[in-house]
Amino acid sequence: MPRGGEGLVNRVISLSRIPVIKHYKGICHVYVDEWADLNMAEKICYNAKVQRPGVCNAMESMLVHRDAAARFLPRMLKRFKEAGVEIRGCSMAQRIVKGIRRATDKDYHTEYLDLILSVKVVNDLDEAIRHINSYGSHHSDSIITENYENSLEFLRKVDSACVYVNASTRFTDGYQFGMGAEIGISTDKLHARGPMALEELTTYKYMVFGNGQIRT
Q: Are 31 and 164 in contact, with CB atoms under 8 Å apart?
């Protein structure tokens, strides 16, 4: 069970002759829906980015629905700026909030592990989901919304180990999930996915006691 950064993980994958369960990078998103409670969204986004920016479950990209962007981004980005967060935004975000740096395609692929945040204004829920599935690392992603149908669609379609509705991505942690000591967070699908503890490192066998049964 080697522990280290992305370079070590990639080396183990390339050299291994057996399947590898990876605790890979965490490019985590929070999507602020058009139906979001913006006060709640502000608290969650701030926590997801600022509380501990150097960990794998911190938010690296914030997506905002275009109908909420003009109301949400000015106050949210002001709060981030006061906390020392560098913002890199799309052209729409730059029009709404002046003076922020333009985000590149590479930014949306980057796990910063620092007080740096990519921001993108999206047209709808479908675009948010496509962006997360294209740029994310299948780690942890959250939607902020009061729309039940949107929340279910997000949960079903976002291909990540942990998906949240109205909660911070910072909860992706074995201890927080009640699993005790955490070994890692798997971004794979088999056999373990999400936070891993001792149980996820074990397999099982069937032990059958009989008293003469035969199959017919």
A: no
Token output for 154:
């997000």
**Domains defined along the chain, listed by start:** 25-172 (3.40.309.10), 173-209 (no CATH)
How confident is the model over 104-145, as pLDDT tens digits? 999 999 999 999 999 999 999 999 999 999 999 999 999 999
Q: Is 195 helix (H, G, I), strand (E, B) or coil?
A: strand
The order of strands in the sheet holding 86-89 is: 101-102, 86-89, 116-122, 59-65, 28-32, 140-144, 162-165
Q: 187 is written with which tokens?
A: 């971004």
For 60-95, give the DSSP string.
Answer: EEEEEEHHHHHHHHHHHHHHHHHTTPEEEE-HHHHH
Q: Compute CA 206 distance to the chain's CA centroid, rounded to the nearest angstrom.
A: 36
Torsion 127-109-85-89 (CA) sign: negative
Length, in residues, of the chain: 216
Residue 94 gets the label, from left (phi > 0), alpha (psi -120 to 50) or beta, of alpha
- Rounded Cα distance between 145 and 134, Å, is 22
User: For residue range 2-22, what is the model confidence (pLDDT) as tens digits?
Assistant: 667 778 878 888 888 887 887
pTM exceeding the 0.85 threshold for the entire prediction: yes
* DSSP track, 94-133: HHHSTTPEEPPHHHHT----SSEEEEEEESSHHHHHHHHH
